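Bit of a strange request maybe. I'm writing a small parser for structure token strings and I need a real example to test against, not something I typed by hand. Could someone generate the tokens for this chain?
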Amino acid sequence: MRARDMVAVSALRSALAAIANAEAVPVSEGATPTSSPHFAAAAAGLGAAEAQRRELTEAEAGQIVQTEIAERLAAAAGYERGGHAEQAGQLRREAQALADITEGRR
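Reply from user aminoacidic:
Good idea to test on real output. This should exercise your parser:
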């Protein structure tokens, strides 16, 4: 990554975002946030708007990355069929970068 491998950086950012999304906890129905006297329906107090995150196991995070790889390869095939070889190549390089990272080759 120090060589500014933009393909790997892009793929890794996307995979990290997918993992972060999976860690998000849905907002419970009927939850009433505390209100600020200055802004209606605003959370009041230090950390009032923070929500607990779910902790993923290593296997769950790995499965998310594998899904990211599979989605990139499927999209690359679609681009290839549509005659967009450059975009297909980009997605295949991103998939390979994620595979290399998960297998410890980068």
